[in-house]
Amino acid sequence: MSADQMLAFETDCHIFDGCGFPSPGLSSFLFKPMFEVGGFEFNKPMLLALLSTLVVCGFFWAAFAKPKVVPGKLQMVGEAGYDFVRRGIVYETIGKKEGEKYVPFIVSMFFFIWIMNIWSVVPLAQFPVPSLIAFPAGLAGVVWLTWMSINFKRHGFVGGIKNLCYMPGLPKAIYPLLIPIEFLSNVLVRPFTHAVRLFANMFAGHLLLLIFTIASWYLLNGIGIAYAGVSFVMVVVMTMFELFIQALQAYVFVLLACTYIEGALHADH
Amino acid sequence: MASEEEQNPLVPEIPELVVGLLAFGIVFWLFYAKLVPSINKVLDERREAIEGGIEKADEAQAEAQRVLEEYRAQLADARHEAARLRQEAQEQGAALIAEMRAEGQRQKEAIIEAGHTQLEADRKQAAQALRQDVGRLATDLAGRIVGESLEDHARQSRIIDRFLGELEERAEEGVRR
């Protein structure tokens, strides 16, 4: 099954042929199940998610399973990525001493999200898995559970609640207003924005690529060919832009995860 | 997923959620259980190897410094010893020369002494022989001149001795003068 089968437009429809622009929309994020096992519908994003697992595990297994003190090329690349996340994200936010414990969590999450994002520009795959809310929501949920459990383990029940909604050093009159807002913001809104930030970026990126890709094809008739050229240039430009956004959003997601964990570890932030 | 339903992109599909969590779970487990400990071990080993190398280099430098000090001390000792030996040799040489000089002096004096003694003996012997000869010759001569009149031997001897004594006195006076 290829992606264009799933797109809701006729592949032989061009401008001036009397058919309208088959604009992409929510239907572009719907996939017919590839197969069904006892009511469980297995679709292409699931396959891509599992392929992401395979790619990340395969690469890092090849790089790190038999590491050497004097590294080979693959291990060097793997170490560069590993060190970037470990030093650049975990040590920077949580600190070296307390952060070391969360390095496997953050490193695996970063590369897993990044590869899931990258499918967006890989031929035949061409779909960013996190543009379906279920995938970022699952990861944001794991992060939420992680920092919440750290919070209550570290500060006890009362201290944990206090850490969630109390800020010291403010005028007393403001607390009746601030405490509910802080609680809502930290406990309920935070995981939601965390997931949606990644989801919306990938969703919008995918739509942008679809619009220009479909337009390049749709405009391929008569004078429209010139516009199709412009549109195709935009496809190339947006593909590069997306490559940047994919890495950036994976980075932002794990950076926020680290910030939340750090906030749970230390009161009075 | 049924495409006829009203689609809300913010509502997660449960099967996708499950697969997503499973997929991440596998990645996390592999990193947690195997890959991160494995690479951290090697990174630590590498850091230790580098730090160990620096330590070893420091050690080697300290050792080299120590050996250099030792060597310098030995060299100074050797110089000292050499100077001492030279001094000693000089002293010994001087003593030897002085001794030899004294010995030479002594030998020279002994030789001179022996020469003097010999000369004195020779002179005495010559004087003795001369005196006898002169006496006999003078007697003969006088006898011949005066004839047979001087038979009285004793008187004759006295005259001769007196004569010779006068001669000696005159000679000694000449020497002194």
TrEMBL record, chain B:
<comment type="subunit">
    <text>F-type ATPases have 2 components, F(1) - the catalytic core - and F(0) - the membrane proton channel. F(1) has five subunits: alpha(3), beta(3), gamma(1), delta(1), epsilon(1). F(0) has three main subunits: a(1), b(2) and c(10-14). The alpha and beta chains form an alternating ring which encloses part of the gamma chain. F(1) is attached to F(0) by a central stalk formed by the gamma and epsilon chains, while a peripheral stalk is formed by the delta and b chains.</text>
</comment>
<dbReference type="GO" id="GO:0046961">
    <property type="term" value="F:proton-transporting ATPase activity, rotational mechanism"/>
</dbReference>
<keyword id="KW-0066">ATP synthesis</keyword>
<keyword id="KW-0375">Hydrogen ion transport</keyword>
<keyword id="KW-0812">Transmembrane</keyword>
<protein>
    <recommendedName>
        <fullName>ATP synthase subunit b</fullName>
    </recommendedName>
</protein>
<keyword id="KW-1003">Cell membrane</keyword>
<keyword id="KW-0406">Ion transport</keyword>
<dbReference type="Pfam" id="PF00430">
    <property type="entry name" value="ATP-synt_B"/>
</dbReference>
<dbReference type="InterPro" id="IPR050059">
    <property type="entry name" value="ATP_synthase_B_chain"/>
</dbReference>
<keyword id="KW-0813">Transport</keyword>
<feature type="transmembrane region" description="Helical">
    <location>
        <begin position="17"/>
        <end position="37"/>
    </location>
</feature>
<dbReference type="GO" id="GO:0046933">
    <property type="term" value="F:proton-transporting ATP synthase activity, rotational mechanism"/>
</dbReference>
<feature type="coiled-coil region">
    <location>
        <begin position="50"/>
        <end position="95"/>
    </location>
</feature>
<dbReference type="InterPro" id="IPR005864">
    <property type="entry name" value="ATP_synth_F0_bsu_bac"/>
</dbReference>
<dbReference type="GO" id="GO:0045259">
    <property type="term" value="C:proton-transporting ATP synthase complex"/>
</dbReference>
<keyword id="KW-0175">Coiled coil</keyword>
<dbReference type="InterPro" id="IPR028987">
    <property type="entry name" value="ATP_synth_B-like_membr_sf"/>
</dbReference>
<keyword id="KW-0138">CF(0)</keyword>
<dbReference type="GO" id="GO:0005886">
    <property type="term" value="C:plasma membrane"/>
</dbReference>
<comment type="similarity">
    <text>Belongs to the ATPase B chain family.</text>
</comment>
<dbReference type="InterPro" id="IPR002146">
    <property type="entry name" value="ATP_synth_b/b'su_bac/chlpt"/>
</dbReference>
<comment type="function">
    <text>Component of the F(0) channel, it forms part of the peripheral stalk, linking F(1) to F(0).</text>
</comment>
<keyword id="KW-1133">Transmembrane helix</keyword>
<comment type="function">
    <text>F(1)F(0) ATP synthase produces ATP from ADP in the presence of a proton or sodium gradient. F-type ATPases consist of two structural domains, F(1) containing the extramembraneous catalytic core and F(0) containing the membrane proton channel, linked together by a central stalk and a peripheral stalk. During catalysis, ATP synthesis in the catalytic domain of F(1) is coupled via a rotary mechanism of the central stalk subunits to proton translocation.</text>
</comment>
<keyword id="KW-0472">Membrane</keyword>
